[in-house]
Amino acid sequence: MKHSNKNKRTSEIRSNATSGHPARQFSKLGKMADVNVAPSLLDDSIRKSKILVVGAGGIGCELLKNLVLSGFNDILVIDLDTIDVSNLNRQFLFQKEHVGKSKAVIARESALGFNPNVTIVAKHDSVMNSEYNVTFFKQFTVVMNALDNRAARSHVNRMCLAANVPLIESGTAGYLGQVTAIRKGLSECYDCNPKAGQKSFPGCTIRNTPSEPIHCIVWAKHLFNQLFGEADPDEDVSPDTADPEAAGDAGSVALQNQASEAGNVTRVSTRAWAQQSEYDPSKLFGKFFCDDIKYLLSMDKLWTKRTPPTPLSWDNIPEEISDQQGGLIKDQKVWSPAECVQAMVSSIKILYQRSKESNGEESFLVWDKDDEASMDFVTACSNLRSHVFSIPKKSRFDVKAMAGNIIPAIATTNAVIAGLIVFEAFKILEGKWEECRHVYLNSKPNALNKVIAPSSLDSANPKCYVCSPHPEVTVLLNVSQMTVQSFEDKVLRGALHMISPDVMVDDGKGTVLISSEEGETTENMSKSLSDFNISDGTRLRCEDFHQEYDLNITIIDREHLEENREFTVIADPSQLQPKAAVESSGPQPSTSSSKPAPSTRATESVEIDEDLDVIFQKGTANDDHQQEPSIRKRSISGQADIGSASKKLRLSENDIIEL
User: Fold this and answer.
1) CA-CA distance, 497 to 548, in Å (whole number)?
2) 204 is a catalytic site residue
3) Within 13 Å of residue 531, how many CA atoms lie on the same side as its CB?
4) pTM of the model
5) DSSP 284-326
6) Do residues 550 and 543 lie in contact, with contact meaning Cβ atoms separated by under 8 Å?
7) Using an 8 Å Cβ cutoff, are 148 and 611 in contact?
């Protein structure tokens, strides 16, 4: 009944707001219309401004509401995402009947309910599309980011720099949040400080020697894709014979005794093998939790300093009933191996039936943390693997948080950050750039007893590979193994966030390595960089016409890199060690992360759930082994005027989001 009354009241407010005299309805809608939200000198600037809001999720919903109630009347909002049921607890512009519809379109419709006199244009599209070029960005007075992924943030940052338009960047993670203003030549940009990479693990750890619950969860997600999803060779779940620890004669016994019947450890397509057995749960169980484990045990050197795994038998599955879980709800209980098998069997039947019913080119399933069968499959398989390797098992609730990389998204945090964005916009519109700040929202008071702590803006990094006068980076890789296709996809587009790269070798001949013109350099893609005489010290000139961005890349040839990475990007050449020093002292520390290499030694990334309002995540939820950040922590202070960096107060590691 309470919900019914609330919905009735909301309908009355919206009805009043869309009938009769517009000014009066806006006044009736909320007291915001009757007070001076902005200083009087700002009124004209606000009315004449044109605002671009990128993202209509948690922050975006709150931001749109703030803008229409603050007098902004020309707004364009763009978001490629659609509304999911999990959004409804915090993205208040959406209701149950909106699930599956465009976030941008519905956010516009709902925001107009607060002020029908505002002009809002909604675009259900990606801001990274070529349609939204520098000319498009130049029409706006201020751009406000409410994004949830690094690639889009970096792209909008470059477009605003090229268009010389102020950008207000923001993000939240649980109770933490931050807002910062960016302007070409007046402050550092989004890319001025290298970003620590997502939590990643060597492929051989995932396949051969898991030691943490997250290793088993990543393996189970890969297994889902191998059986039902879009298969990726880098996500093969079979034991890794190329494991550097399994050198010498390791694995030779298993290799010599491989059979040819279905259900063994022969390296064939997992999907094809499963289809031949019609996804028989007993055969799937036998392969992944018995035969493959026996194969790993034959790699003697892997277990000299580790506890060896214990194969499971389909006919003898332990119960492990615990009396300590009586008061827990279903999702918080840790399943016994027998319960895992039951969940595995039932989920396989459901997923197999779905895969048979799917048609067309995309005849594969996509893992979804909110899908019951998908979650049951990953929970069951990850816990069975944990049992095999004597690793603590996790509840379905914990597995969901870790597999989806979930950081709780809190509506109050989004609301505070959205308000701070508008305050920074006021300063920009008044021309008071010197008063703009980095603003942090903390989970607990700092030394000055404040939870909202501003910090003066830092000047641009003179060695930034985006906003410096002559952007440069150094890329460490193996020129004999790296193909042109991998260089474009993983280095240029993946790590450096370029959209339409053109690359020329600085060899005096003008050799074109990569062209954004379709088909012009297709024949180059399968060749290695060394085929174009690219060697240690070679310089490449890169351009992105869409981003109006130029970058010089120096290639450093390295046969081996830290943690078996395929490449490493170093923004500051002074951090590069001489090759001789690297070979004598081991791998050098990297200043940015690389994407996985397409080999059995690849690193396996744990994906960030794109439904969240996250700007940066160290490690994964519920993972005790957090990755060390490779960027400096920003200083903060509760005072408006801040002194030198050495005098600034700093938050503890748990109280800051690094952007």
Assistant:
1) 13
2) yes
3) 13
4) 0.67
5) HHHIIIIIHHHHHHT-GGGGSSSPPP---BTTB------GGGT
6) yes
7) yes
Q: Report the length, in residues, of the chain.
A: 659
Choose, from 61, 160, 189, 204, the residue flagged as catalytic: 204
Tokens of 535: 């060697």
Q: Indicate the DSSP class of residue 636.
A: B
440 by DSSP, 3-state: which?
strand
Rounded-to-integer distance, Cα 541 and Cα 24, Å: 59
Q: Dihedral angle at the C-alpha atoms of 370, 376, 380, 386, nearest 10 degrees? A: 10
301, 245 in Cβ contact below 8 A?
yes
Contact 565, 476 (CB under 8 A): no
* DSSP code, position 373: H
How, if at all, do strands 176-182 and 167-173 pair? antiparallel
pLDDT along the chain (659 residues), means of 10: 45 39 36 48 88 96 95 95 85 92 96 94 94 95 93 94 96 91 93 71 82 93 90 73 48 43 51 88 94 91 89 86 63 91 95 80 77 94 95 93 78 95 95 93 89 92 91 93 93 92 92 92 94 94 94 91 81 59 41 36 34 33 32 33 32 32
- Sequence letter at residue 74: D
Distance CA 280, CA 260 (A): 18
pLDDT at 332: 87
Collapsed DSSP state (helix, strand, coil) of residue 641:
coil
**Amino acid identity, position 32:** M
H-run or E-run covering 192: none
Task: Give the torsion sign (CA, 396, 263, 314, 385).
Answer: negative
